Amino acid sequence: MTPPQTALATACVHAGEIVDPHGSPHTPIYTTTTFKFPSTAAILDVVDGRKPGALYTRYGLNPTIQALEEKLAAIEGAEAALAFCSGMAAESALFLTYGRPGIVCLGDAYGGTLELLGSQLPGLGAPGYFLLGNELGALPSLLKRGAGLVFFETPTNPTLEQFDIAAIAELAHAHGAFVAVDNTFASPVNQNPLALGADFVVHSATKYLGGHSDLTAGALMGRKADIARVWNWRKNLGQTIAPEIAAQLARSLRTLPVRVERQNATAMRVALAMQAHPGVERVLYPGLPDFPGHALAKRQMNGFGGMLTIEVKGGGEAATRAADKLKLFALAPSLGGVESLVTQPCTTTHHGLTPEERARRGISDAMLRLSVGLEDAADLIADLEQALG
Ligand code: PLP
Is residue 129 annotated as part of the catalytic site, yes or no? Predict the structure, then answer.
């Protein structure tokens, strides 16, 4: 697999698009559930995998979905990709395919992922193990016990902690385990885990890939043979993306680099302004030279992303007051859209954890997580200043 970086913008526009006989520059939306064949022999060629082709939409064998998957693979430099109806669908199909001997989850992960790995999959016989960043020394023994998959987000939510993808992949591979990285926060513009040695990349395409907070989708990228095993789970769990959403996601991907590059630049300006603000205790942003993971971020990321977390002086109540006063930043727990969003993790994404567990993870009540959108940087900074004022 080669990193797509140099050709990313071109891949976002052109990869996977089918040649339309009527000259449409974009792949048409095939909403049909099934496709007709000239003969039984022709059906069997597709059913038996001898020839590519459209067959049945839930299988993903639909031209609109297949075109999207080619684009998704290209933007992560992967041999193959599968598109799902949500990020959780992509994760659960991956875990059911590769995680039954045990899954080690590193650092903070999305709440749904923690619930799936901690309470639901163990009931099906797939044990979940959890290591925070300062507990990585225990990873070799878990791998020796037979865990088959190491899964992590980097940067993490909401502390933007960095995990060393190349080092973790080397260790996991030495024990015969697969490595999957949730690249949702970084996006393929800022980080290419496959090029750093990971076996799989997962995305909540609901976030930066969709980019407009108007679609729910997921993606999984990796080697062709590895992805082929997941395909069957997706098919029978019925998790395939709808063709209409596939077209909407392909539309959004065409502008991904432009959006994310602007979000990187604006987030940096917001981070610097917040660092200088007397009402802010601390700013967590991988682009800041004093951020603990800055050196690693510089090594493994191509850009520092549109997500940052500020810690408001005065504690949780002061943070809530500031969040409630924001006008341009909408109070909403998602991320990655063109509109800026703010969330207080202790009231949303990490509300389900005990205060002790949040403290163990370095998540304070005074934290506000910002997802920087495409508004003018000066307007966003002014909004934060009036809210913190
Ligand atoms: N991964 C990350 C990092 C997320 O933030 C989320 C959702 O917030 C998911 C996965 C799950 O994605 P979805 O909501 O598309 O199922």
Answer: no
